[in-house]
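Note to self: keep these together.
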Amino acid sequence: ILLAVSGAMAEGYRDEIARRTRRGLEGRALAGKATGGRAYGYIAARDSGTGRIEVNEAEAAVVRRVFELYAGGMAPRTIAATLNSEGVPSPGSRWNRTVRRKDGKWLASSIHGDVKRGSGILNNRRYAGVIAWGRAQWKRGAADSSRRRMLMNGKPLHETLDERLRIVPQPLWEAVKARQALRTSQVGALIRGGLRKRAGGAGRPGKYLFTGLLVCDVCGASFVLRNREYYACASHWNGAACSNSINVPRALVQDILLAGIKEDLADPAVIEEVEHRVRAVTRQQRQPKADHGKRIAELKREIDNLADAVAAGMLKSSPALGERLQAAEAELARLEALRRTAAPTPIVPNVRQHYLGMLGRLDGVLERDPERGREELRGILEERIKLVPDESGRFLWADYSLGLAALLPNAEIMVAGDRRTVTLGHP
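Structure:
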């Protein structure tokens, strides 16, 4: 009872702390004071020496240059590649990262961002002197407690204009917004035209078999289609942030990798490993089930205690008691049902015959349905396929491990591909 009550009280206390914190930040925003966070081009209030947010002139010059290049017709990919070639640190260079992308390089996404969410250099309204607060809120997910930025109502709760913090002149800001609107309408027209052409067909456009399954071993970014025919490292393609410049034909990747995976799946050692695992599971099913008697006794005592607490009137002060009582009763009913159910007699399949039949059906799935075939490959592979450039810079080694035989050594297949220069500059 004490654990249930203290848990409910702790949850309410956390909610109250969050409410008070947000109320305090709202008061600071209304007073024109800093509310936390760092934006590229500015010095945080705690570091400025004046107690206010100040403009970082060196970074502000980079921001203005990005706006000028984009307004002049240069694509975000080309802008990112230009800044990387000049050694200009990106906004992420000062982030305290512990995983991949610690090189401080620019990517196209850090420039064009998302217009609706206000992310990216070109969409930060603070550069035009607009200070907004309350447009988004960080919330923790229920599944893994990770923090996610959620848009509130599509517009900020408070918005003020502070010319002291303006970095981009208004005419330049409007020129960039005009080009973004033009690009949006052009791309939208192409998409609508493509959808009309497919109106007589069924479903959405088909995706390629290895979409999302290839990863660059140099930087950890995905290998993506830079056009319909060639795969390339996303970090290199979106701003030359990775040294892996090898482009490899999509058809060659699909043919060689599929041939290698099928050959490995048909390997007698793999089939023997599958048989061993299936028979191990079958042996576990034959073992007598756990009686669950100890847990059932614990649940009965807990239900009695919770029922006494509810009868004493504690439910009004802690609704969590009622929820815990329902959960305990549901678990008790499930365990008692399992106890009454007779253990089914496991059927030992002809593992080798079923496995070879699965391989035969897999060929048809991969050819007819790339979407379903990709899901099949996700289950077969232990992790995504790493594409590793060799010393000559002309070949990629595909390094993967089969999930069906994780104890076997990794298989390696050479994927040939001539070095090609990534074409940037298309707006």
